[in-house]
Amino acid sequence: MKRIVMFLAFTLVAIAMISAQGYSVGDKAVDFRLKNVDGNYVSMSDYPDAKGFVVVFTCNHCPYAVAYEDRLIELDKTYRPKGFPVIAINPNDPAAEPRDSYELMQVRAREKGFTFPYLFDEGQKVYPVYGATRTPHIFLLNREGNDLVVAYIGAIDDNYRDASAVEERYLANAIEALLEGRKPDPDFTRAIGCTIKVAN
Amino acid sequence: MKAVFLTLMLLFVVTGAHTQVPTMDFDQLKPRLSTEDDSLYVVNFWATWCVPCVKELPEFEKINEVYSDRKVKVLLVSLDNPRHMDSRVMPFIQEHNLQSEVILLDDPQSNRWIPMVDESWSGAIPATIIFNKNSRSFYEKVFTYEELENIVEAKLR
Lengths: 200, 157
Prior knowledge:
The complex is a heterodimer of chains A (200) and B (157). The N and C termini of chain A lie far apart (45 Å). Chain A is 30% helix and 20% strand. Chain A has 6 helices and 9 strands, in the order H-E-E-E-H-H-E-H-E-H-E-E-E-H-E. The relative contact order of chain A is 0.20. Chain A is globular. In chain A, the strands form 2 sheets. A 7-stranded mixed beta sheet of chain A has the order 2-1-5-4-3-7-8, with helices on one face. Chain A has a two-stranded antiparallel ribbon with strand order 6-9. In chain B, strands 1-4-3-2-6-7 form a 6-stranded mixed beta sheet. The longest helix of chain B is centred in the middle third of the chain and has 16 residues. The termini of chain B are far apart. The chains are: A alpha+beta (200), B alpha/beta (157). At the A-B interface, strand 9 of A face helix 5 and strand 5 of B. Strand 9 of chain A pairs parallel with strand 5 of chain B.
């Protein structure tokens, strides 16, 4: 009995350590409840019909994030009707980066005409659970039964600078794969981005 | 003729090494990310728009200066958009009077080359590799001067 308790305790510690480092593909993602730029709170459970979600950690100030705004709008327009809406989350602490304040998020969402919620990770509780390290950073979630399972982590495509020079649309390809019942390949990519800003 | 040559040389020295910053893709940069010689290399990935990068640049500059006679070389790899070379990168270098070598990496295929810099790099900057022919360390973080100094001292031993 003692051994079983020890084993369970060890397993829990191990799980806690793994989750502290964020999600890998195949992990179950937790829902969140964060304030949108319109003042309402948004959770993934508000979308019972969604087949999954494009959760993107992004922000106002980072040039790489800004470079992808138009592409995120296009992705949302294309894939929300197919069951994969975009949900954007600003993980930065405005005390460390004033340009990423909630008020300026509202301004940016209005200027760009975001078609998707743009949520503020108040208290920076969500991004560490997901393991986001930069903006922009994508976590594509796929509904499997009652769970939302991480299906792809990484970049939107292979050319931040020039949408017309993109050769591989990693995220779009990953969503298409899920829609066809396949696993995304690649399911993990990397891109340069801005660190998530934490106040000292 | 000799006078002209000397004047040109002098001009080059006075204005610093940064009258031009070379732009290259990752395959051209790659030979600079490992070594067979006896120097210690500190390679920092940064950009003018990256606030934490700009904040820590003086520490790298100081390493470059303090350890210049101990075979330590600092290379600053800018990830700025090459379109901003004249409008942002060069003015930044001049304004901050950067003395370390600067290269602009123009290679949007970051998913290909990020793991070639280091397998553990998520892609966030600043990021730094410190290496000599015997050892190599990667850091995805902002440095204080003391932290940099400790690593450099340890690797020089």
